Amino acid sequence: MTAAPDPVPGTPANDAASSSPHPASPTAPSYRERLLPSPGAWIVVVALGSIVGLVIVPLNSTLALIVAIVSIAIAIVLAVQYSPVVAVRDGTFFLGRAQIDVGQLGEPAVLEGEEWKLLIGQDFEPLAYHCVRGWVHAGIRVDVLDEEDPTSAWVVSSRRPQDLVLALRTAQQQA
Length: 175
Prior knowledge:
The protein is α+β, with helices and mostly antiparallel strands and 175 residues long. The chain folds into two domains: 33-81; 88-174, no CATH class. It contains five helices and eight strands; from the N terminus they run αβααββββαβββα. A hairpin with a 2-residue loop joins strand 3 (92-95) and strand 4. Helix 2 runs antiparallel to helix 3. The termini are far apart.
């Protein structure tokens, strides 16, 4: 008889099968994504940190190595800290520091490929709230229905736009 692996907390399969007397936290996000840089952008981050150390090589190679390592670490931390989080939680759509009640949003639309390129390029909406990352090649657009809000829509990069749209629709139905 083989031993069953220990359940991993936080995974959907194990959370659903869990017989815990405590229900899931009401503030648990129904969708959460951090728009981290792509692998190519990480290479640039490390290269920029290395260049800082390279400048000091003529003075002292040991000091240059230390400065390069510290600079790379700082660059990585900054890249993670400045990557916005897209989340849908408790009837609110969070995008970085911005947030809006899902009841004030229209029907979200998934945009990929040519549609996405047009929306962030030639069909750019100056009154829309944009959170677009060049290394993410898909996203969503959702109209803002509040008449007093000068923002016409939210345009959001997402690596999983279908999941984000599903989370928004679910939150809108529950609201």
